[in-house]
Specification:
Elements: E1 2-4, H1 12-23, E2 28-30, E3 37-41, H2 45-55, E4 64-67, H3 74-77, E5 78-79, H4 82-91, E6 96-102, H5 108-111, E7 115-119, H6 124-133, E8 137-141, H7 155-162, E9 168-171, E10 181-184, E11 191-194
Parallel strand pairs: 1-9, 2-9, 4-7, 6-10
Antiparallel strand pairs: 2-3, 3-8, 4-8, 5-6, 6-7, 10-11
Length: 202
């Protein structure tokens, strides 16, 4: 399924179509504030496993990331101290992934690595989907070998490539080619492990 959703004022009926796919364990490709990404209901283990298989991700060796609507329920999914929370509040919503230690609320597949990436993108479409779903969304950018291919910024071309792989592709306009900045907050001091689109406000 290929649907158009406008980022200025997402149509609730279109959002509901996405929610139905996610609740049924489906996979969706959607825009973020960085690159287009593939995701599913983060608490649906079978859907998470399906994405890991498609992307060749080993959860024991690779960090999994989830998108939350805002910071209000971050502590359900990750352990966050006051200093880290303040840092996140300064920079989110935005093009950042914060690596935090997991909590017991996340399914076991996340616990192999003992850490989870937290995203709150500055993109109305995906945040509205997360809000309506009521669960975070597992997210992984659609790219290969850590190189974002420029043709993967065009939703119609993305749909041509992935229509037989995922259950829905959302056209939310052209995407970017630069990933998020990754900040590891699992130790005493936060460390930027990948400089991406976001410039951190310390």
């Amino acid at each position: 399924m290929f649907i158009k959703i406008y980022d200025t004022n997402p149509n609730p009926k279109e959002i509901e179509k996405v929610i139905k796919v996610l609740r049924d364990g489906g996979l969706v490709i959607y825009p973020t504030d960085t690159v287009y990404a593939m995701g599913c209901d983060a608490l649906n283990v079978r859907a998470v496993e399906r994405i890991c298989k498609i992307k060749g991700i080993n959860p024991a060796k690779n960090n999994l990331s989830i998108i939350c609507y805002d910071l209000s329920n971050i502590s359900e999914y990750a352990k966050v101290d006051n200093a880290t929370f303040k840092l996140m509040k300064k920079n989110l919503p935005g093009p950042f992934t914060f690596l935090l230690k997991t909590t017991s609320s996340l399914p076991r597949i996340y616990k192999d690595k003992k850490m989870v990436g937290i995203r709150v993108p500055d993109n109305v479409i995906i945040r509205e989907i997360v809000r309506a779903l009521g669960n975070p969304i597992l997210t992984t950018s659609i790219k290969g070998d850590d190189e974002v291919i420029e043709y993967l910024t065009d939703p119609e071309l993305i749909n041509e490539k992935y229509e037989n792989t995922v259950d829905m592709v959302i056209d939310g306009g052209y995407g970017g080619i630069e990933g998020s900045t990754i900040i590891d907050c699992t130790d005493t001091e936060p460390i930027i492990t990948r400089q991406g689109k976001g410039e951190v406000i310390w």
